[in-house]
Amino acid sequence: MFFSFKRLFFVILYNSSLFLILIIGIQNSSNKNRVNLLVEESVELPISFIIGSSFITGSILGAFVPFNTNKKGKSFLQCD
Fold first, then answer.
1. Residue 69 near residue 31 (C-beta atoms within 8 A)
2. Is the pTM of this model over 0.85?
3. Strands (E), 3-76
């Protein structure tokens, strides 16, 4: 399954702008927490950065989920 250049450009531009707004917005954040990884813990990060980066990651991964709604007889999430 190939994505058009226009769609890929839009996904990159949209998520980059969200990340830029996230970085600007957390400048005065004082609430910090650690993220538990599988092996160790991360450095202390602002909670808003953890939530925002999770949202952006989900947005990027969600852009690559194929939705076939116009083909009859196929499941809603079934790939070609």
1. no
2. no
3. 32-33, 45-46
